[in-house]
Amino acid sequence: KIQHLIWPLGRHTSMDKLFALLQCSSSSAAEAVAFDVPGGKAYRIRIVRALSDNYMYLIVNTSEKTAVAVDPVDAGRIITACEEMGAQLVAVLTTHYHADHSGGNEELRQRFPGLHVLVGAGDHPRTPGVTGGVSNGEVVQFAGLQFQCIDTPCHTRGHVAFFLDARDGQSPALFSGDALFVAGCGRFLEGTAMEMRNSLAALATLPGATRVFCGHEYTVTNLKFAASLEPENVLVSSRLRDAEVKRTAGVPTVPSTIAEELEHNPFLRIHEPSIAAAVACDPNDALNVMARLRRSKDTFTTVGKLMTWSLDLTGMLGLRSTM
Fold first, then answer.
1. Among 12, 98, 159, 264, which one carries the catalytic annotation?
2. Residue 26 — very low, low, confident or very high, per pLDDT cuts 50/70/90?
């Protein structure tokens, strides 16, 4: 836990220090365990835990023995995963600059000469170890795989998601970072309700079978919040029970799918009367619904209240200008 708190200090922003502190205090450190996602023979996706609740991802071309990593905060665990799978890391895709998503970039560049490390153009100046920035709609190809970059600003100004098209009999995959979570979305740290609405709307147009690989294991809390909004929603209650069973067993709740998110994620259902009523809004005022929904979620837990208070305080003091 101590190393999780100390390693960002002096290298990143005051916001990253806050996130590191709250990660250490909110839950125990994640086990050093990786999970292989069932799939085809041409490529494999491995979920790699980090810190208290982060997920990193390794996508391996099994014939070429090359790999792409997403949000590698813990370089050591990514290196171990590469060694276990007999793969050479050729690229890193970083969804945003926060230290708990980019903290391993520099070490990986040292370990793998010629490594490509990409991030959204808007976050490029603030992200360690990057070799280039990407723009909305840009398609990049590494390890024989194509990834489309989708701008998803709000959590950070330059946040991007990466969409891997369908192949090898597998459904498409979305690596959504802190924009879209299972049953939730990221805090509006550098954006507005309109930006988050637009970002999520862009992701909602992806094929329903698209698997969603997000940046954190927040599913149980997110579904508890969703259930508090709609206590009579049987689907939400059922998925909450399923998520609790998985977490008790130490199994990730990712991936979900875009189709599932459209069914149970309140941030993708802001036009529905039941969601608007839960936050005392006019269902025709979607932006106000989004804003109130996020504020309610921000203060749903004790840790959330502490983080919200800290963010409000740093904002009043002007400290968030360092982001």
1. 98
2. very low
- pLDDT tens for each residue of 67-95: 999 999 999 999 999 999 999 999 999 99
116 is catalytic: no
Q: Using an 8 Å Cβ cutoff, are 101 and 93 in contact? A: no
- Does 4 participate in catalysis according to the annotation? no
Cβ–Cβ < 8 Å for 28, 52: yes
Q: Catalytic site residue 264?
A: no
- Is 71 catalytic? The answer is no
- Out of 16, 74, 100, 151, the active site residue is 100
Q: C-alpha distances in angstroms, 12 versus 55, 134, 257?
A: 20, 21, 33
Whole-number Å distance between alpha carbons of 307 and 42: 42
Task: Tell me which of 4, 155, 159, 264 is the catalytic residue.
Answer: 155
Q: How many Cβ atoms sit within 10 Å of the Cβ of residue 209?
A: 12
All structural domains of the chain: 2-322 (3.60.15.10)
**Catalytically annotated residue among 4, 96, 159, 264:** 96
E strand or H helix at 99, and its extent?
helix 99-102
